[in-house]
Amino acid sequence: MPTFTAHDSTLLTCHPAGEGEPLLCLPGGPMRASEYLGDLGGLAAHRRLVRLDLRGTGESAAPADPATYRCDRQADDIDALRAHLGLDRVDLLAHSAAGDLALLYAARHPARVASLTLVTPGAAAVGIEATEEDRREAMALRAGEPWYDAALAAFDEVLAGRATEEVWARLKRFNHARWDDAARAMVAASPRQINQRAAAAFFAAGAFDPAATRAALAAVTAPVLVVAGALDGGPRPARARELAGLFPHGRLAVLTDAGHFPWLDQPAAFVRTVTGFLAGARPFGG
User: Fold this and answer.
1) CATH code of the domain covering residue 228
2) Measured in Å, how far apart are the chain's first and last C-alpha atoms?
3) Looking at 169-173, 237-241, 243-247, which range is the least confident one?
4) 3-state secondary structure of 186
5) How many domains does the chain have?
6) Which one of 6, 44, 133, 182 is CB 3.0 to 4.6 Å from 10, fit for a cystine?
7) Which domain covers residue 248, as residue numbers?
8) Which DSSP letter does residue 123 get?
9) CB of 35 closer than 8 Å to CB of 200
10) Among 166, 213, 174, CA closest to 191
11) For the chain, what is the radius of gyration of the CA atoms?
């Protein structure tokens, strides 16, 4: 796999797949190896996906200084990948916790963003966070499921500080609209794909200045798409709409019957939504 060097000499790895104009893809977790993104429901048939393994995850090396796992300190890694690919401007897609990373990158380098696709994104970087009420609202939508009571009990166990691996596994049912082989495989693979030490540092104190980031995002003139799942608790569609509204050219797409991983729940709708957005964005590099 292609490797490149970050500003602090950490060796990072990216995974290209597909044909066409490159789309840089950032994984969530936080700090989960990009393997779980796969081909994003078939999106690789339309764009050359370039998945980045964040420092200390997947095939990327761990940094000499663990403090560089903090979200804001990883924004320069995205620009190192842009430079490695020889691009003046990038189409960027970020999932979940990587939404914060993409927001900080766009705030820091607005002229280098050709388009931004935020998929069920975290947005603590701009002060938009899922609340307990948001989570319970989304969970209530699944009340008819036979596993609902056990999964809801798991949520209460987590809030009480009694989370175990088994409790987390039950709770993760809420992330998926369909509990099929792909969803089960994603949940099973999660523990080995996440760098727990790095995840603990990702949101360390000082990572975010929401007011400054909101102000800086007003300079992002590139088109921005926020994709929310109608069944997702983080973010709920209303939070995603608030995020889209921070950008001069932001828009929201809510996928029905989809949770936190919409390319698994509704692959055709996800690919159609993202490709349609990218086709209407400014020409790559233009």
Assistant:
1) 3.40.50.1820
2) 28
3) 169-173
4) helix
5) 1
6) 6
7) 3-127+196-280
8) B
9) no
10) 166
11) 18
